[in-house]
Design a protein that fits this description.
- By secondary structure, this protein is α+β, with helices and mostly antiparallel strands.
- The protein has 2 domains: 98 residues, Up-down Bundle (Acyl-CoA Binding Protein); 102 residues, Roll (PH-domain like).
- 43% of the residues lie in helices and 20% in strands.
- It is built from 6 helices and 7 strands.
- Strands 4-3-2-1-7-6-5 form a 7-stranded antiparallel sheet, with helices on one face.
- β1 and β2 form a beta hairpin.
- The longest helix is centred in the C-terminal third of the chain and has 29 residues.
- The protein is globular.
């Protein structure tokens, strides 16, 4: 249970910033669950829904519906799970977003000019699957580079550079960001984790021969 509380508060801000691609019906479900976590059985905040929408719905989706339409959609789903506790609502929230490919990511908004196939402003997600490049407008994942394909990376105060494939024929992505050090740390820890796992697997295979 402690785990769910930790993950909920870790994932909620990323969700509300609009970093994930999520279908409308799930946005409504999640809004109803967040409302229950925040206010439990107190329905009074529905009267002034426009004040709390920014805490319930991803920022890039708020304008898709009028406050009254949001109120109707969220309230009908909220009423369906009356009696649900705060903890149960947190778990239900996590069960929905856990299925998304970007769940558990650290997100970074960067600028890039090296690859004309990608938008100049990119969203980079780093998670256990690798490094994903995301279109910040559509939230589509443009490509995911698994850690096994990343051959080199470096960072400074204003940049983060990453090389995919081998050093001779690989492609390089140069990003402008002030969070290069964070991206560097994350990549280093994920890759060292991967190498440790691979070494363990090799030695256990060696022992079983």
């Amino acid at each position: 249970m402690a785990d769910s509380i930790f993950h909920y508060y870790q994932e909620l801000p990323k969700y509300l910033r609009g970093y994930h691609k999520c279908p409308r019906e799930e946005v409504n479900q999640l809004a109803a669950l967040i409302y229950r976590v925040k206010f439990e059985d107190d329905k009074s905040h529905f009267q002034n829904i426009s004040k709390v929408l920014k805490d319930l719905v991803p920022q890039d989706q708020i304008r898709n519906l009028s406050p009254d339409d949001w109120k109707r959609s969220i309230m009908s789903l909220y009423n369906k799970h009356s009696g649900k506790s705060r903890e149960e609502a947190k778990l239900s929230f996590l069960k929905i977003i856990y299925k998304w490919p970007t769940f558990g990511s650290a997100f970074f908004e960067v600028k890039q000019t090296t690859d004309p196939n990608y938008p100049e402003t990119l969203l980079i997600a780093i998670n256990k699957h690798g490094v994903s490049l995301i279109d910040p407008k559509s939230k589509d994942i443009l490509t995911t580079h698994p850690f096994t394909k990343i051959s080199n990376w470096s960072s400074g105060n204003t940049y983060f550079h990453i090389t995919i494939g081998n050093l001779v024929r690989g492609s390089k992505l140069l990003c402008e960001t002030s969070l290069g050090y964070k991206m560097d740390d994350l990549l280093t820890s994920y890759i060292s984790q991967m190498l440790t796992t691979m070494t363990k697997q090799r030695s256990s295979r060696g022992n079983s021969k």
